[in-house]
Amino acid sequence: MASHPVFLSVILVLRNQAHQLEGILVEATKTLGLLASDYELIVVDNASQDNSLTTLKQLTREDGLPNLQVYALTKQVDLDTASWVGLENSLGDFVVAIDPMTENVDILPQMIELALSGADVVFAKNEIQTPQSLAYRTANGVFNLLYLWLNGINLINEAPKYRMLSKRLVNFILQHPQPAMTYRYLPAKGGFSSAHLTYRSPPRRTEVKRLSDGIDRGIRLLVSTTRAPMRIVTGLSIFGAIANLVYSVYVVAVGFLKSNVAPGWISLSLQQSGMFFLLSLVLFVLGEYILHMATLSSEGPLYHVAQELTSARITGRHKLNIEEVNPLLTHPQLPDGSSF
User: 302-327, pLDDT tens digit by residue?
Assistant: First the structure.
C-alpha cells in the first residue's frame, strides 16, 4: 500500500461497542499509517451507555494510539449528525466518515486514489447490506422513489453514506444553515466532481433494522432538503378550490336541468368525502413542516460534546494550528551579534 503525501481525517461513529472498540481502532490506525503521511482518527462516541468512554480514555494515553481525537456526545443523535460532529472538527485535506459496523476501511486506498485524481467526493457502496425487516425494506424503497421524484437524487445509488470529501467541499457545506442534513444529499447535487465505488464486505452489525429506526430521519431529510412537498400542498389546495368550483357549477346545472332530484344526500356525501380527503393530505404535509420548524426552534443545538480527548502521541510531521516563530524576531540581535 502506497503512502500518499496528504493529511487524511477519518471519522468513526461508535455507540456501545466497548468490546470491539480497541480492535476497530487498532485496525484503522494500521491502515491509515500506511495510507497517508499525516492523519487523524476522529472517534465520535454517540452517547454510549457502556464503558466505551473509559476504553477511549485509555487509548489516548502515552502508551495508547497516536493521532486519536475523541468527541463524546451527551445524547444520542442520528448517524448523519454524529458524522458531522467529526466533519466540522476535522483538519485534513480529505475527510471520510465511516460507520465501522457496516463499512470497511480496506476500501480507503481506492477512495483516496480517486480523490487525488480530482474528485471532490468519492462515494463507496457496500453491496452486502445489513439485515432489514420487510417493513423497513418496503418503506425505504418507497422513500427513495419519492425522494428521487421530488429532489432528483437516488440516495441509495448516487449518495451512499460512505463517502470521502475534499476540504473545500466540507467548507462549502459549512455555509449552509443545516449542514448535518445538507451533508447527506448536497455532495451528489452541488456540482462538485464525484466518483463512485462498489465493494463487498460483510457488515459487523447483525441486528435487524426496524422501520421505526428510519421514520423520523426520513421525514426530516425529506422536508428539509426540498421545497417540493410544499409545492404539493399548494397544488392540492388549488385542486381542491377548482374541484369545489366545478362541483358547484355541476350542482347548479343539475338543479336547472333535472326536475326529480333526490334531496341531495349523494351529492353532499361525495363533496364531503372528497374534500376531507384532500384536507387530510394538506394537513399531514403542513404538520410535518410545522414539526420540523418547531424542532429547529425549540430543541437547541443538534449535539453537545460532553468530553473531548486527544492522544498523547502525535506522529504527524506538521504541527497543526501552531505557528512557528522566528527566534530573531523575538530576540533581535545587534550588529555585533549580541541580543537586546
Answer: 666 766 777 777 776 444 554 455 55
**Per the domain annotation, does 100 fall within a domain?**
yes
Q: Are the C-beta atoms of 68 and 316 separated by less than 8 Å? A: no
> What single-letter amino acid sits at 116?
L
Q: Sign of the C-alpha dihedral, residues 105, 44, 124, 170?
A: negative
30/85 same-domain check: yes
Q: What is the pLDDT of residues 183-206, one digit of tens each?
A: 777 777 767 888 888 888 877 666
Query: What DSSP string runs through 146-191?
Result: HHHHHHS--HHHHS-S-EEEEHHHHHHHHTSS-HHHHHHHGGGTSS
Q: Are 170 and 246 in contact (CB under 8 A)?
A: no
Residue 11 domain flag: yes
280 inside domain: yes
pLDDT in tens, 262-295: 777 567 766 776 777 777 777 777 766 765 665 5
My answer on whether 181 and 49 are in the same domain is yes
